[in-house]
Amino acid sequence: MRELTELKAETTTWRDLERKARDAAGLLDLAIEENHTEIAAEVAREVPEIEQTLSALEFNLLFSGDHDHNNAILSIHSGAGGTESQDWAQMLMRMFLRYGDVKGYQTEILEDMPGDEAGIKSTTIRFAGQYAYGRLKAERGVHRLVRLSPFDANHRRHTSFALIEVMPEIENAVEVEIKPDEVKIDIFHASGHGGQNVQKVSTAVRLTHVPTGIIVTCQNERSQLQNKENAFKVLRSRLVELEIEKKEQEKARLKGKHVEAGWGNQIRSYVLHPYQMVKDHRTDYETSRTDLVLDGELDAFIESYLKSQVGQV
Question: How far is CA 103 from the centre of its chain?
């Protein structure tokens, strides 16, 4: 039903745009025929809006993947480097949460593990909204930060890494089967930063999928049942992502292209010193407005990546 509603809304948008363009063309013909400057000016004011809507709809045509319409589950993992990388992971967490706000997505932190001194070791965030996975899948990979360290008394330059994983949220188990006897469920006390919100009872849930070794932890809800449901959502999504990766690796093998998995190649660098630059190494798109990017303005990077993938089947 949700898919049907979305398709109807998309069809209505295209038809409304067609009507506006047809009406504008008719008014322009009338203005030319009668030499009516006021009507011509009215049409001129409507054209930018029509062009903007058309551009947005054309961009949506890039979302042709099986799961591009789905909600997204995004995980951030700090790399080697202790406090530096953990602080970088938290900066990325803020960046993606701000991006979610900009796009009007509903965001929910499913799990986060605080760093030893600052930042976070890892976090998992759910993004709910149209094309959430289609957009955020462009962020999957290693993100590198170069800056003067705020944690170094000598203010030396440091390089930090964080890994971003993005998976589609699957609402049913049609595409993957999770057998109850293959999942180990552990219940434990939720940990936190302290204060009155620390759980006094065992509500945190850890799932271990025995065949794959995938471990999922959810602890942010007060209800054990809710944490368990969220954990199974994440587990199902990770199993689906595993299947997607297998298919992509098989395609790459057939094409003869070697795919380096892991931390070998960063997809994007964020340089804050000695100059200001964010550069995507897959598309060569770059900007000096590092402040805007870290505040969630990612559309240009995502659009350039998605356009570069057209025809890459």
Answer: 11
Closest among 269, 46, 306, 68 to 169, alpha carbons compared: 68
DSSP string, 100-155: HHHHT-EEEEEEEEE-SSSSEEEEEEEEESTTHHHHHGGG-EEEEEEEE-TT-TT-
Q: Assess contact for 269 and 202: CB atoms under 8 A.
A: no
Give the domain 72-174+260-308 fold. Alpha-Beta Plaits (3.30.70)
Question: Which is nearest to 115 in space by CA: 94, 88, 146, 149?
Answer: 88
Query: Edge-to-edge, what's the strand order for the sheet holding 214-218?
Result: 183-189, 202-209, 214-218
DSSP secondary structure string, 157-226?
Answer: EEEEEEEEEEEE--SSSSS----GGGEEEEEEEPP-SSSTTS-SSEEEEEEEETTTTEEEEE-SSS-HHH
Amino acid (one-letter) located at 77: H
Q: Residue 9 — pLDDT band, cuts 50, 70, 90?
A: confident
Write out pLDDT tens, residues 118-155.
Answer: 999 999 999 999 899 999 999 999 999 999 988 887 87
Instruction: Tell me the CA end-to-end span of the chain in Å, nearest whole number.
Output: 30
State the pTM of this model. Answer: 0.70
- List phi, psi (to 5°) of 180: -55, -35
Which amino acid type is present at position 271? V
Per-residue pLDDT of 148-205, as tens digits, reads 988 887 878 899 999 999 988 876 544 678 888 999 999 887 765 444 444 456 788 9
Read off φ and ψ for residue 102, nearest 5 degrees.
-60, -40
User: What CATH number has the domain spanning 180-254?
Assistant: 3.30.160.20
- Both tokens of residue 134? 């289609």
